[in-house]
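Sorry to interrupt, but I need a hand with the structure work. Please put the record directly below this note.
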Amino acid sequence: MNNKQKVSDRVMQMPKSAIHEMTRLSKEIEDVAFLSWAKPTSNAPEHIRKAAISSIKDGLVDGLF
């Protein structure tokens, strides 16, 4: 935010969401799985990746692509 922008007092008084609070707390603890923004820290297991590819190739996943 630059110096010309100001957040209103009303917005500043809004409580933080539970997800925001959990995100803040997760940064204080080492080795916590951080999934609140759907950003896993590791790859899906091989069998899940193969099943997803198979489902797409077999036409079982529709409307996503």
The chain has one domain: 9-57. Helices lie at 9-12, 18-26, 46-57.
